[in-house]
Amino acid sequence: MCGIVGLYLKNTDLQPTLGALFEPMLVEMTDRGPDSAGFAIYRNQVDQDHTKFTLASDNPKQDWKALDADLEKALNCDVQISPVGDHAILITDGDAGQVQQWLAEQRPQIRIVGSGRSIEIFKQTGLPQDVADKFDLINAQGSHAIGHTRMATESAVTTEGSHPFATGLDLCLVHNGSLSNHNRLRRQLERNGITFQTENDTEVAAGFLTWKLRQGMSLTEALEAGREELDGFYTFCIGTADGFAVMRDPIACKHAVMAETDDWVAMATEYRAIAHLPGADTARIWEPEPDRIYIWGDVQ
Amino acid sequence: MSVAKLDLKAIGVRGVNAALHDLPKGSNETQWVIENPMGQHNIACGLDAPIEVTLSGHAGFYCGGMNKEATITVKGHSGVGTGENMMSGVIRVTGNASESAGATGHGGLLIIEGDASSRCGISMKGLDIVVGGSVGHMSAFMAQSGHLVVCGDAGDALGDSIYEAILFVRGKVASLGADCIEKEMRPKHLAKLTELLEAAGFDADPAEFRRYGSARKLYNFDIDNAY
């Protein structure tokens, strides 16, 4: 099962209402995935010399202020941390690699769930509505969002196993389906320096894309490579800095529907997640073809 | 005759279906409109009376499933398994339909004015399907009887492992599935195709279609068919 949803606002006037439009999409997919939910919101882009990290901690008493001060002192850089639920958004002008290394060494219990200039990723176990409330999704503004409701089949129900999975700067992946060769691929990717936090199959797909993108492939090329290597049933939705991409496997038995108006482009596992959007009644609606990559926004 | 309205938002799918199922035999209330379908699943399933039901919007999965006698019109797109296992009656979708439209259908007529997706008419058992646009891959997979008319193109593996269903395609066929071959269009086929296009209300020239069907080589175990 699982449900995935994506919304990209072509009309920038709608950006203040992104969360209000997107939250019902996510919640409508509760039947397909009541275990956990997660979403990526693209908003508040930081300057080119800054990096935005989304951090997550399982410790409800996580001292984000101390982390802020310690990191600034250690790396001699500017750091701003804003907690959101049990996640936090960290914006810094420090070197992204050094920040990651410092976090791994000094705060190993904290997970980096996403990084880039505009992406923010929030995910948690529990009903989609509860997860949305925890991170105040309804009030989110932004340009686009993708989300996932999870019914776990391949790995445990944990926050780490929830989607979206980051695949690179401002990139993340949500997945409906299951991969059958993820264990072999995980071992292969680990030998190539990709690290994994879970036994989750989707994390392997994300790791695969990360690996290909690091080699200099465009997103389209990485997805084409994924089509060759990833065995299983899947509909992927990939959030990018400027939009999102959708790809289904060649058999295409995991549901997907797309809709487009002059104001927005949406994708979902089922149309009912799109039905409430303004103008959905007269939108162009179609089922994405198997084995074909659909991309909105400026990506290679 | 008055048209009765059912607001799905107010009474839910169960409320809508119960109202249509509870009609006494021979009821005068034959015209129904379902408002606010909002892509919900299982709308107008299991109807068994000669009534006319119109959905004023997009439907979710299995709309009109198991239909008997009713005429159902979806004013928009319909989701997976539209008219699955229908027995008789007519279902018309004015937009596109998702995968497995008309799956296992025993009888009646399913009309999709737009495109149907993959596996259209999978395992159909006597239903007639007329698609104004194109159909996706694996359409008419294991189709046993009935007709599938495609005014546009057909995707890969059309008619894979087909039994005795008859397929008519006007456009390109990406590839034929195992044991599906092009066959001669005889006068009785042209007549049937003309009748189906007329019933669907499509203005397409029957002479532009080609007929496909079973080579009848998979019926019995044949070692040459093992891969």
TrEMBL record, chain A:
Q: Which SUPFAM superfamilies match?
A: N-terminal nucleophile aminohydrolases (Ntn hydrolases)
**Tree of life domain:** Bacteria
Q: Which UniProt keywords are present, listed alphabetically?
A: Glutamine amidotransferase, Glycosyltransferase, Transferase
- An example of a Pfam family matching this protein is GATase_6
Question: Any idea which GO molecular function terms this record carries?
Answer: glycosyltransferase activity
Keyword Glycosyltransferase, does the record have it? yes
Q: Which residues form the Glutamine amidotransferase type-2 domain?
A: 2-299
Q: What is this protein called?
A: Amidophosphoribosyltransferase
Species of provenance: Profundibacter amoris
TrEMBL record, chain B:
Question: What InterPro entries does this protein's entry cite?
Answer: Glu_synth_asu_C_sf (IPR036485), Glu_synth_lsu_3 (IPR012061)
Q: Which domain of life is it from?
A: Bacteria
Which GO molecular function terms does the record list? oxidoreductase activity
Name the UniProt record assigns to this protein:
Protein glxC
